[in-house]
Write a structure and sequence with these properties.
This protein is of the alpha/beta class. The protein is 27% helix and 20% strand. The strands form 3 sheets. It has a 6-stranded mixed β-sheet, with helices on both faces. Strands 4-10 form a two-stranded antiparallel sheet. The protein has a two-stranded antiparallel sheet with strand order 6-7. Helix 1 links the parallel strand 1 and strand 2. The longest helix is centred in the N-terminal third of the chain and has 12 residues.
Length: 161
């Protein structure tokens, strides 16, 4: 399996625990500032070995990463809920860096873009996918979606009993 890279705010969050329980080897890397994520992404990309990226608030279901690893597409991943759902069908869902595979062939063929280094953790995805789009690479989306335990506080629908 390709290396599984998990940029994280702290070691041992649910995605790492879930993947470890599945018997997968996960490389957790603590992000200590706004630009840590782009630096890590660039470093891993430049190795040219390919990798699977799982963000620290995205929890893949058992077998999800094996499915990505076995896919013949250069870039593939899962969508996940990313915002409060609006009236439009499927609004609030995205397929971004949260749980994505970048193949060895892709990381060797497409050089890293220096623009990635100018971004922070919250805008790296746009820069990466802009680079890939220029190179004619589209992300293949697998299903079903994966879970997203978004860190920011969203409106709760919980009630007290």
């Amino acid at each position: 399996m390709l290396p599984i890279i998990l940029p994280t705010r702290r070691i041992g969050l649910p995605p790492a625990l879930a993947l470890t329980m599945e018997g997968l080897e996960v490389v957790e890397v603590v992000m200590y500032d706004y630009h840590s994520y782009p630096r890590l992404f660039t470093e891993v990309w430049q190795k040219g070995t390919g990798f699977i990226l799982v963000e620290d608030d995205v929890v893949p279901w058992p077998g999800a990463l094996a499915e990505l690893d076995g896919c013949d597409r250069e870039c593939c991943g899962y969508e996940y809920p990313n915002a409060i759902i609006h009236e439009e069908p499927r609004s609030g869902w995205c397929a971004s860096l949260g749980c994505t595979k970048f193949s060895q062939e892709l990381t060797r063929r497409v050089p890293y873009d220096p623009e990635w280094q100018k971004r922070g953790w919250d805008s790296l995805d746009g820069a990466v996918f802009e680079t890939l789009q220029r190179e004619g690479v589209e992300m293949h989306v697998h299903s079903p979606p994966v879970a997203h335990a978004k860190a920011q506080k969203l409106a709760s629908r919980a009630v007290e009993l």
